[in-house]
Design brief:
The structure is a single chain. This protein is of the alpha/beta class. The chain has helices at 21-33, 41-52, 110-124, 127-134, 139-147, 176-185, 199-203, 235-246, and strands spanning 12-13, 63-64, 67-70, 77-87, 97-106, 163-170, 192-197, 222-231, 255-261. The protein folds into 2 domains: 3-147, 3-Layer(aba) Sandwich (Mannitol-specific EII, Chain A); 163-261, Alpha-Beta Plaits (2-Layer Sandwich). It is built from 8 helices and 9 strands. The strands form 2 sheets. Strands 1, 2, 3, 4 and 5 form a 5-stranded mixed beta sheet that branches. Strands 7-8-6-9 form a 4-stranded antiparallel beta sheet. Helix 1 (21-33) crosses helix 2, helix 3 packs across helix 6 and helix 4 runs antiparallel to helix 5 (139-147). The two termini are 26 Å apart.
Length: 271
């Protein structure tokens, strides 16, 4: 099953009206219950409320992603709701929420939850997708506006083959969150992050070379190196995904991707 199959127009609305966060969660639970067989509206509401106690799922730019893992569910379900007036959802930036994605799924399917939430998060920050969803005239148009930006990554991993070590040296730290979400979408686990610096930072401590630092430019030399074991068949799609986020890496100087053969491994980076 992929994300295309867990969202239908019956669980979408372009006219959500709610007095407050609690009222909003009740209406989202009702909306989502139309797409779920093994959980009642009250069950969904209770689960969403339990998750909200851990911290609000109201994020920036008018987006909220309430979600919950539920016992007894065998499949994922998702809804999208648009509030024209906006809802006070206790968002991070303190602004009203206008787009609400709700996701519930089996308690044991942690990886599936991560992939779905990562993909929703990425799409919600796409300005074109954001605008199209807010301007959708019907539930069907709303669903299509979202689906148009889905990458097609499957929720459950297919059988894999030969592994590679993929490394991304990233100087443009503003892209870090998007790249990590890309990894989650692809179901890549055991990602390791290293904090590092470039040669300019090291040369600044050597008096002999201090006069040549301008030659190396003004860019901040702090970087992150992202390391992960990926299937050989996933390498191209990961590289394409990074370039969708950052632009053409042949002309972009903010990152470099390396893919290496693995001759021996023992143990795992997964926690």
């Amino acid at each position: 099953m992929d994300i295309f199959n867990i969202l239908n127009d019956k669980s979408c609305t372009t006219n959500l009206v709610a007095r407050n966060k609690d009222d909003c969660l009740k209406k989202l639970s009702h909306l989502l219950s139309t797409n779920v067989e093994n959980a009642s509206e009250q069950d969904i509401y209770d689960s969403l409320m339990e998750r909200e106690k851990l911290g609000s799922t109201g994020f920036e730019d008018g987006v909220a992603i309430p979600h919950a893992k539920m016992k007894g569910l065998s499949e994922f379900a998702m809804s999208i709701a648009i509030s024209k007036k906006g809802v006070d959802f206790n968002s991070i930036d303190g602004k009203k929420t206008h787009i609400l994605f709700t996701v519930i799924g089996p308690e044991e399917e942690t990886e599936g939850h991560l992939q779905i939430l990562a993909q929703i998060s990425r799409i919600s920050r796409n300005h074109n997708a954001h605008r199209e969803m807010l301007n959708a005239s019907t539930a069907l148009v709303l669903r299509e506006a979202f689906i148009r930006y889905v990458s097609g990554a499957e929720i459950k991993k297919e059988e894999k083959g030969k592994n590679k070590l993929l490394m991304i040296v990233l100087y443009e730290i503003r892209f870090f969150e998007d790249i990590i979400e890309l990894f989650l979408e692809k179901g890549i686990r055991g990602v390791n992050i290293l904090e590092s610096t470039g040669i300019k930072d090291q040369l600044s401590n050597i008096p002999l070379f201090s006069g040549f630092l301008d030659f190396l430019g003004e860019r901040k030399e702090v970087s992150k190196t992202i390391m992960a074991i990926v299937d050989e068949s996933d390498v191209s799609s990961v590289v394409e995904g990074v370039e969708e986020i950052m632009g053409n890496l042949d002309t972009h100087t903010g990152a470099m991707i390396m893919v290496l053969d693995i001759f021996f491994t023992k143990g795992s980076m997964e926690v």
